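Handover notes (outgoing to incoming on-call)

Open items:
1. DnaJ subfamily C member 11-like protein: sequence verified, structure written out, both below. Nothing else pending on this one.
2. Nothing else urgent.
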Amino acid sequence: LNRANQTYVFSVLLSDEIVPEAIFYGTIIPLLSYYCVKKFIIDPYAEREKEKKNQKARQENATRLSKLKKEAEAAIRLMTETYRRINEIESEKSGLVIVKALYGKSEIVANYVNCDEIEPSAEVINVSIPIQCLVKDSMLTLTEASKAFLPGFYDPCLGEKKE
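DnaJ subfamily C member 11-like protein structure tokens:
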């Protein structure tokens, strides 16, 4: 420990000699104890607290989320004719046809890739129509910005930390 011009040295003596038991009890046991406490007590507690925080955020954002969902559904209804036209044009020229596009948490999206129906309570939305409407000349151009601001999209995980 250094403080100004003074140096303090503290020597911790575990044993007078190099004894394997002293090394074991002085290093391995504390490390294993720390690992076990962290793995079985601290990490589960932190995970529960994180889940409580996410649940609270979901409750606080429920009305805002339902409003965003209604706006997105209205935008999709307005896009249906454009979707049909673009889909028909792309199909005729063997261009880019979006079969299925999902938006939400990556872990949850993976569960719905092969499903036809998505639960209304799931944190995943089907964005096939809005994505197909973004196709022009068999090219889909997306920016690096959040997709939640695109027409027909909304953030189904509102208030949660994103990857």
